[in-house]
Amino acid sequence: MVDWRDNLPEMKPGEVWLVGAGPGDPGLLTLHAANALSQADVIVHDALVNRDCLNLARTGAVLEFAGKRGGKPSPKQRDISLRLVELARSGQRVLRLKGGDPFVFGRGGEEALTLVENHIPFRIVPGVTVGIGGLAYAGIPVTHRDTNHTVTFLTGHDATGLVPDRIDWDGVARGSQVIVMYMAMKHIATITSRLISAGRAPDEPMAFVTDASTDQQKVLETTLARAAEDVAASGLQPPAIVVVGQVVRLRSALDWLGAASGRVLTADPLGHRSNPQKDSA
């Protein structure tokens, strides 16, 4: 019988693998990610990588913290990228482990370009991004045919730490039925004000999810108009994934983690009964 691990790639000395660790639950690691953890000599990891994922590293692997936290001393991105080059040139098998997906607001593209510039061989391993997987653990789908045919993913702050001016907030508000925001909690009052000014309903459902897919996961359901006030009162701390749109209403039916703890789910959260014959067509 062939062992599935025999078909996974070998991490070679001098290589860097840029790997997504998913939103937190180690069960959401890909096979390629687990394979990298079992081989790497050095693991350069972000603050968002769950400790349970790091515990899967091979015995003897060196863990290097390279996390960034808003408002706190953090390594500069250029220094992190050059550290990957340095480690690879020393003959190490280097795993750059990032929360979520390295190419979704993870600056993996910047690090990969530095590797290309310095002729370092690399591999990209996508991960489950928190904007999809983390919301799924909260019982919130990013799409549902009865609520939306569009979804926009955006970041709540740019390189300066401010709300990005290059985002067409009016266009997003008018054109996207569901908006998923990374790194937006700090500026949520400004962001919600812009969305409401652009025509979004003040009572539109909104949710914040912190520590998504982990035992510490917390979910706050609110509205655009009340978001800033409710977040402040809740005591929730970033990072959080934030979603705006009618899909938030589906959580009353799809909160599968809550159901496992005794929550009674609502069969028809959107206020209408589906037609089984039509659905099967």
Automatic annotation (TrEMBL):
Keyword tags: Cobalamin biosynthesis, Methyltransferase, Porphyrin biosynthesis, S-adenosyl-L-methionine, Transferase
Residues covered by the Tetrapyrrole methylase domain: 16-227
One GO term (biological process): siroheme biosynthetic process
PROSITE patterns listed in its UniProt record: SUMT_1, SUMT_2
Enzyme Commission number: 2.1.1.107
EC supergroup of this enzyme: transferase
Family according to the record: Belongs to the precorrin methyltransferase family.
Protein name: uroporphyrinogen-III C-methyltransferase
Organism per entry: Hoeflea phototrophica (strain DSM 17068 / NCIMB 14078 / DFL-43)
